[in-house]
Amino acid sequence: MPDFRAILRDDRIYFFDGGYGTLLQSRGLPAGLSPELWGLKAPEVIRGVHRDYLEAGADVLTTNTFGGSRPKLGLDADPYQLNRAMTRIAREVAGDRAFVAASIGPTGHFVEPLGELTFRELVEIFREQIRGCVDGGADLILGETHFDLAEARAVVVAARLECRLPVAMSMTFEGDASLTGTSPLTFVDTMQNMGVELIGTNCSAGPERMVDTLAAWAPRLATPSFAEANAGLPELDDAGNTVFRLAPEPFAEQAARFADMGAKFLGGCCGTTPEHIRALRARVGDRSWKRPEPTDDARMVLTSRSVSVPIGFSHPGVIIGERINPTGKAQLTAELQEGIHTEAVRFAAEQIELGAPVLDVNVGAPMVDEKTLLPGLIKTLIGRFTAPLSIDSNDSAAVEAGLWVYPGSPLVNSISGEPGKMEALGPLCKLFGAPFILLPIVGRKLPVTAGERLAVIEDLLVEAEGLGIPRRLIMVDALALTVSSKPEAARHSLEVMRRCRDDWGLPTTIGLSNISFGLPARELLNSTFLSLSMASGLCSFISNPNSARIQETLHAAEVLLDRDPQAARYIGRFSEWTDGGGGAAAPVADSGPQTPDLPPVQAAVVKGDRDGVVALVEVELGRGMAAMSIVNDLLIPGILAVGEKYERKEYFLPQLLQSAETMQTAFGRLRPLLEAEGGGGRKPVVVMATVEGDIHDIGKNIVCLMLRNHGFEVVDLGKDVAAERIVDAAQEHGAAIIGLSALMTTTMVRMEDTVKMVRERGLDIRVIIGGAVVTEKFCTAIGADGWSTDAVRAVKLAQSLVA
């Protein structure tokens, strides 16, 4: 077989194989058993499935290693040996007729601050799995069915550290976002920053719904893509088996549209069979493929887990908020020295409210260990806000530590011409997909003229190119030197901006206020220089967003430079403008959770202010408010408002968890008082468990947290729990409800075991079920009392059953 990268450049359309889980189940895989572990005992069955897909026309065979990570397999298994063995089977069948893709699925765990695993730990877990696949003969690494951007990035980082094979990465979306709030476009932006060779989507639903995902990422997609839809949605047949109803021919008719939308690889996911792939290949025929051409001309894109900020010559100028910097800020400095983040969080919230799309984060204060404090503060900020961050430090080790905890593509500020700087930080930025500011300074002497700066820039670009760093990761600092001492400084900066735009197509940024240092009426100079700079190609600037004059200049320039269609943003912000002669800027209406009319404790829950909520509770207690009143009148209305935002897709899983944990923190303070007031009486008990054979517990854990926040006593039995143990625990604790979770179609059938046992024992206990594959029809078929697709609906269901 040729190198896989070679076929990414040709004009052919290729085909992945289809689903494995339901197919293996039809060939003997027991319900609830790991397909990977079973594959070691039944290698001929695995060979048979690979062989059938090969004969059906698949160009790429996927290894039976989707759940082959250590957290999925358990401590007794050897992930390396299993992955090598399963990959060897696929390699033997493929021979030189097909490529072998090493399937790397989710671990079932979140990265901190959403979960307990560190990003480094997750990377090491994937490295162990990938190592086995590489030694087994894989041609590419295929991350598939991922729903969290941080975990998807961990697969890519692990693959880059472990081997030189190309990487394909696929995310599954629920509507217009993944489970943790990543849109298709933000996923593409992040993966392209990381240099992923093939970007795709799989699972989720049938091919008709997947069309929306491909359309959503099209504006900035410049990488070959693939799409693997399910054969419709899962249903339960009369025998209680999970089936997918979309037959091969209609599946092929619908999925062939992906080729028309630019996909280079097509395939199938849950419920698809060799016949689906054969029909799809016949339907597509010999049509050719052309590399996608983005319609959006962004030169750089910064991302968080859920937000993309494009930077380019036709995009709005980006304010990089400068306030999280201890220089000249005594309180912030003192807090950073104590490891406290309160003031930094306040600065972040203020700047976002004032319209800064990106926040610069600098902790360089005396007596501060930046290598520890910077990643700690980054974790706090990404847990509270969605704005992308700029990691700002002169300490390369601190920058690296920050990159290891960030879930998207942050900006690194900066890489200069200092000897060894590009060599140290450039490869890290490439590995993590982190764009950076190129600072044209060599040694201690500042380059005054445009010619001097451009010479340094050219040398650094050559060095970056030698390290394989793409231009999409580079933005140039045009250097603003004060005109009070160097009158020609502004003119040279403007020339650098123009040359970067016209000669190299590179975006530029600048520390705006430096230009006016030492002069009166600094905002006049700053705003005028901003206007000239934007006309010369400036794309972003580091500044305090709390300046009305700067905001006015920015938005007016966008209109005059034809970067604000129909002047919509300008009109929205300044329709009631009056000449105030400068001063503070007005907040942006849609900049984040707005809670101006809510009581402080309730607002803290809505905003997820876990660090500040206890102090606010103390204030209410000091005013004489009873603990139970705080719960009923402030905390519960707050979490209900969060649930409504989640249902309206204003909040996603990270915000839901942050608010739930904030409420738990407040409860921790109030619990002794509630018991003293007599408010700690009997609560309805819910026994929660993931069913036997299923080791996925993320969704179940979230439901447990939300139920506790709504006044339920929760007994969490964990994952892979047998029906008898579940029912025994429900009897022991006097439970009103049993909650069951399952993620896989092969394990959801075990839910019926618990329902039957409850009925056989004659217990007056309601059974509710949930999970990605659970449907209303399945719920009715097994006789459960209700079902839910997410934690918010699960709480409402539980409340209705105990009312």
Automatic annotation (TrEMBL):
GO cellular component terms, alphabetically, are: cytosol
> Which keywords accompany this UniProt record?
Amino-acid biosynthesis, Cobalamin, Cobalt, Metal-binding, Methionine biosynthesis, Methyltransferase, S-adenosyl-L-methionine, Transferase, Zinc
A GO molecular function term, named singly, is: metal ion binding
All residue ranges annotated as the Pterin-binding domain in the record: 317-561
Q: Where is the Hcy-binding domain?
A: 2-284
Picking any one GO biological process from the record gives: homocysteine metabolic process
**Where does the UniProt annotation place the signal sequence?**
none
Origin superkingdom: Bacteria
Look up the record and name the pathway of this protein.
Amino-acid biosynthesis; L-methionine biosynthesis via de novo pathway; L-methionine from L-homocysteine (MetH route): step 1/1
Could you tell me which residue ranges the B12-binding domain spans?
683-803
Q: What class of enzyme is it?
A: transferase
Enumerate the InterPro entries for this protein.
Cbl-bd_cap, Cobalamin-bd, Cobalamin-bd_sf, Dihydropteroate_synth-like_sf, HCY_dom, HCY_dom_sf, Met_Synthase/Corrinoid, MetH_bac
Entry similarity comment: Belongs to the vitamin-B12 dependent methionine synthase family.
What role is this protein assigned? Catalyzes the transfer of a methyl group from methyl-cobalamin to homocysteine, yielding enzyme-bound cob(I)alamin and methionine. Subsequently, remethylates the cofactor using methyltetrahydrofolate.
- This chain belongs to the protein called Methionine synthase
Organism of this sequence: Pseudodesulfovibrio alkaliphilus
